[in-house]
Amino acid sequence: MISLRLAPVFALLLLAPAGQGQDERGAEDPKAAADLRPMRFEDVYGSANLDLTGSTPRGLEWLGPDRYLVPADQGSPQVVEAATGEARLAYDAAALSAALTDAGVKGDVAEKFSRRPVGATFDEERRRALLESEGDLFAVDFGGPAFGVDSDAAPLAVRLTDTPQTEELSELSPDGRTAAFVREFNLYTIPLIGVGEAMTAGPEAALTVGGGDLIRYGKADWVYFEELYNRSWKGYRWSPDSQRIAVMEYDDRAVGTFVVLDQTAATDIETRPDDSGQLVERTRYPKAGATNPTVRLGVVDATGGPIRWVDWSADGLPGLSSLGRTSGDGGGLIAHYGWFPEGDRLYGYVQDRVQSMLSVRAVDVPAEGPLGEATELLKETAGAWVESPGDLEFLPDGSFLLASTRDGWRHLYRYSPDGTLRNVVTSGPWEVRDLNQVAVSDAPAAEAWIYLTGTKDDPLGEFLYRVRPDGSGLTRLTPEDGVHRASVAPGGGFFIDAYSAHDTPPRTLLRRGDGELVRTLDEADPEGLTKTARGTFAWVQIPVAAAPRADGGMDPAGTLYGYLLTPPGLNLANPDRRVPVWVMTYGGPHASSVKDEWAKGRGWERLLATNGIAVLKIDPRAASARGWAAAWAVHGRLGEQETTDMAAVADWLKAQPWCDGDRLGLSGHSYGGYMTARVLTHTNKYAAGIAGGSVTDFRNYDTIYTERLMDTPAANPGGYDQTNLSSKASDLHGRLLLIHGGMDDNVHPQNAWQFVDALQRRGKDFDLMIYPRDRHSISSTHYRRLMWDFIRETMLEDSSRSRHGGASPPASAQDETDEKSP
Known about the structure:
Layout: H1 41-45, E1 61-62, E2 67-70, E3 78-81, E4 87-89, H2 93-103, H3 107-115, E5 121-122, E6 128-133, E7 136-141, H4 145-148, E8 156-159, E9 167-172, E10 178-183, E11 186-193, E12 200-201, E13 205-206, E14 215-217, H5 222-227, E15 236-238, E16 244-251, E17 257-262, E18 279-284, E19 294-301, E20 308-309, E21 333-339, E22 345-351, E23 358-364, E24 375-380, E25 393-394, E26 400-404, E27 411-415, E28 421-424, E29 432-439, E30 449-454, E31 463-467, E32 475-476, E33 483-488, E34 494-501, E35 504-512, E36 517-523, E37 536-544, E38 547-548, E39 554-555, E40 558-566, E41 579-584, H6 603-610, E42 614-619, H7 628-632, H8 640-654, E43 659-669, H9 671-682, E44 688-692, H10 703-710, H11 717-723, E45 735-741, H12 749-761, E46 767-771, H13 781-795, H14 811-817
Parallel strand pairs: 41-42, 41-43, 43-44, 44-45, 45-46
Antiparallel strand pairs: 1-2, 2-3, 3-4, 5-6, 6-7, 7-8, 9-10, 10-11, 11-12, 11-13, 14-16, 15-16, 16-19, 17-18, 19-20, 21-22, 22-23, 23-24, 25-26, 26-27, 27-28, 29-30, 30-31, 31-32, 33-34, 34-35, 35-36, 37-40, 38-39, 40-42
């Protein structure tokens, strides 16, 4: 997926512009005094390094129904009793670090893991861990369940591999008795024999053979990693009983290759006379309309043996090969897969190439012999596309929960094991964002609670709720405004609530399962807040009028949601000056960037606002996360409605008495970069824009993301033509800064080169910065300084001055090159 990359930002609360969606929480912040100095670039990205976030606890983890782990910066981690707050050592960190080092773990890895046991996989009891160091594997036995906190035994570390190859994507079996890992695209296991101090490594078993970069086992290829597996390379899953492993095969032999070059490598003529100095990466990357990888799912015993491959087809059920658009295109997709709780049954999500449907299918997995015939439990077809709902969540009675957007909002539905719908669990004009846990206490005849994160009470926030499996008893458990991230203890007796809001730095609370506050674990108090001016914050709503579509239809009227950060002391109702405004967006379908959260202090936005440039962060309608129907509206025509929305933003700003309408800027990265470049080539509303990591033609992007939103190029040529910004290069208005990573393996530099070539051929001026060794994400101080200087130059300095320090071009050149004023 094209990444949602947001600049660090900051805001505090002020009244919204009159008549424009003032939030009832809006109020003047007494700390936002106008006489404090503006923020400096060095305060955020330089030597001053002001603290705008404050310290927050990291790595808190439940070890059971009533106690949790607190990692240590110094000393040893502690286990805390939730009810009382009583703490004791989880284990001796120095002893564990020494044991790891003695076993061969790199010193800094051993030290970090001993104090913060993260970055590894654990068994279900948290008795054992499996970690990687310099390409080899090591197992740890803590001497007892839950890190051995109730045991006097010292932690033990055992080296499992010592090879010149890299062992990666390792995972312990649920029972902690077997380690699985991938080496050179093949799947292996190593048994852990004995317990405690007697633990040793058994013989290694190869579960697959013949793997390589073109046919992979257990490690995803690029497009599955990026678009379907939530950026996880792991392509296998342990069965709950630890006896078998479901493993994916990815066949990329027919997938096109894209080359990414590192042109900055040194040429070593003395030792390698033919060395070009180029470091060449070749990635199998299927572009929209091209051949997809061919995939299949199999089951293999943890000790080795033949792989039993799943045949997803059955009577009346199409197989993967028939779910593509053309012969030999790789067929359909296995969007997700997993095990039923007993470990004797697999489920998988089978989709057609463009993801217009999702079929949930189940396959019996007997201990021996062929796998069972596939059966379809249910099928999703509603809306313009169907995205993978993630894992099925199973209840004690064998029923399961599925997240679905079938009514235009993401909600939970409960099904019997055979796929019969039992009941709707949640409903209404709001969304379930995450299913946190199904919790059942140890009490006799206890009923299950479903804990979920959702937006029922505010689409700008996220809150923890719980509900019964039959849909009754829906209750909000986190009363404060903002975005809440909750970790629910097994059984649901307690949960840790980490939250923040735009006017509230991060806080971490411990609550009982019904939401009752037990105690505050941490409250961030950023020291940098008192050192500079802050700017003033307002929620805004911007109307959009109905507008014609390229296909002859009409986009209806609507509303855009965002927030505004204005310079300190600016009276929006009765301003004494007009100020420029810099607009920020991302814009990808159902990918909101406007949330009620602290967001690390919003230093970038605060930097602009306290130096006289108002900031508006806004979501186009399709990105607002206010229901999937809004996102589906842009299917097949990415950018068209969003451009209308960003033009409406500019018109609204120009109508405000405090806004200098001749000095409006726009920026975004990735999809936001595409949006910025599209708006500047399709409207004359903005004086300047910064487009980072931009797609400039969606024929250049990958199959799974693009065809989900656009269909194939063969089926929708006109829609793809609209995304080709090179065809509109002659219509560029305003000053454009293009930024791209020279080794971007996601949105390839080809996008920038095509657009740059088109702009040059049409005699258009623009600015360009390439970061030769950066990928899709760019975050250097140079990058931030570049944008800071560009925004100040275009928003604060005399706009009639040439970018090169001279006079404006002569009239003969002005008509061709200087179309920068809105």
